[in-house]
Amino acid sequence: TGMFTYDPGYTSTASCTSQITFIDGTKGELRYRGIPIEELATEHCYLETCYLLLKGMLPSKESLQDFDLELRHRAFLHEGLTKLFNAFPDNAHPMATLSAAVTALASFYDDHLNVSNEEEYQEMARRLIAKIPTIAAFAYRHSLGIPFIQPDIDLSFTKNFLTMMRAYPGGKMHLGPKGHEEIKEVEVRALDTIFTLHADHEQNASTTVVRGVASTGAHPYVAISSGISALWGRAHGGANESVIAQLEMIGSVENVKKYIAKAKDPNDPFRLMGFGHRVYKNFDPRAKILKTLQDELKEELHLDSRLMEIAGEIEEIALSDEYFISRNLYPNIDFYTGIILTALKIPKTMFTPIFVIGRTVGWITQWIEFKKDPTSKIARPRQLYTGE
Ligand code: CMC
Predict the structure, then answer these.
(1) Is the pLDDT at 301 greater than 70, yes or no?
(2) How far apart are CA 332 and CA 194, in angstroms?
(3) Which residue's CA is the closest to the ligand 1 atom numbered 4?
(4) Residue 239: CB within 6 Å of ligand 1?
(5) Where's the active site on this chain (predicted)?
(6) Residue-wise pLDDT tens digits, 23-65
(7) Where do the DSSP E strands lie in the chain?
(8) 71 CA distance to ligand 1 centroid (A)?
(9) 332 CB near ligand 1 (under 6 Å)
(10) Count of alpha carbons within 13 angstroms of residue 254, beta-carbon side
(11) Interatomic CA distance for residues 388 and 386, integer angstroms
(12) Residues taking part in catalysis
């Protein structure tokens, strides 16, 4: 007793060794399996990134085709699981439904996995990656009280998700002034990039939860649903929803100064959502990629110029303010996703579920790494007792 290091928030504790993701927070560097995020975001698609994380290398053309085809076939949900959605109130937040549905999914698949047979783990992973977008889209459609759209085997991973979100029953798109408003390739590419940027981020809060649940020997899908619950909070993945809510609340460029003053006030709990990061103390490379993407898509996707102006003003003032400079507070990934997702006609309650879709591969890859690591132990920290 009395021999433990007190480290609230584990700011200086390495809880595992890992070969998946590398971050240099001072230089603003992020790599998956050694490959810089900039390269993955611009030269590869999300499914290639998933394969890279799971298998440790980028797929050949044939392997990618097989992987893609398998995910398309696995995107369907068991009818029994489909019934679960109706048990939730209409106004249920899709994150609550998503977490519950993934826990429920554990009851459909046996978890007696054989540690020496890596393929059993990989199959468990592919099934979950394939089904999560369907679960997320069903959760959303239930929240609107509209019929589910089944996955379409002819569509790519990302286009399929957008279709399940936006199509009318029967699979037809919204009827605009020029006929059916088909999903544009540029929209698919934008969302695909967002998924890639979210795919993994080493030992963040939700991944730490996933590994913690893994350490007790619970079902892998339960570990992931715990990760989903952890991600929901505003300090973590819930920030993307809060950023847009905050931009809407600020309402005009003139109001920005007032809210920056609130964020700086030590007696005011108000924080600028989408600012600051535990690891990045220079800039978040994912935010940089998204800012470029946002500028590229501005015209093509008719991004909301009012929200962009307010966001631009926040950035400009904060980045030259002593409070933010001295604390190394920069815009993070969540600061930029919302404006792009809004242009893709995705409502803000679905922003965190989109983070979930992208991050599932990271969680499950970390789960596999934990299981295969002979040094893994149950997560059981100690405390410094200060009571009676
Ligand atoms: N607005 C105003 N002040 C801030 C902010 C902010 N967004 N973030 C940190 N600070 C201040 C904080 O008050 C503290 O000041 P002081 O030293 O005077 O007490 C100092 O900066 C350090 O903050 P901290 O809370 O000790 O830092 P942390 O590493 O524990 O927390 C964080 C990191 C991301 C939780 C925090 O910056 C935050 O709450 N940001 C807003 C929420 C957000 O955007 N989250 C998304 C993170 S990125 C991806 C993801 O995980 O989703």
Answers:
(1) yes
(2) 13
(3) 271
(4) yes
(5) 277, 334
(6) 999 999 999 999 999 999 999 999 999 999 999 999 999 999 9
(7) 21-24, 29-32, 35-36, 175-176, 179-180
(8) 37
(9) yes
(10) 0
(11) 7
(12) 277, 334
Distance between Cα 350 and ligand 1 center (Å):
23
Instruction: Answer whether 276 contacts ligand 1 (Cβ < 6 A).
Output: yes
Q: Which residues pair with residue 175 across a beta bridge? A: 180
User: Which of 244, 329, 352 has most ligand 1 atoms within 8 Å of CB, for mutation?
Assistant: 329
Of ligand 1's listed atoms, the one at least distance from the Cα of 355 is 52
- What Cα–Cα distance (Å) separates residue 213 from each residue in 47, 74, 220? 26, 25, 8
Asked whether 204 and 363 are in contact (CB, 8 A), the reply is: no
Mean pLDDT of 126-149: 96
In this prediction the pTM is 0.96
| DSSP assignment of 57-75 | SPPPHHHHHHHHHHHHHHT
Spacing, Cα 276 to ligand 1 middle (Å): 5
Task: Report whether residue 334 contacts ligand 1, using a CB cutoff of 6 Å.
Answer: yes
Please state, in angstroms and as integers, the Cα–Cα distance from residue 207 to each residue in 129, 277, 313, following that order: 16, 16, 33
Among positive and negative, which fits the CA dihedral 196, 156, 174, 145?
Answer: negative
* CA 227 – CA 268 distance, rounded (Å): 30
Query: Which amino acid, residue 38?
Result: E
* For the CA of 206, the nearest atom of ligand 1: 51
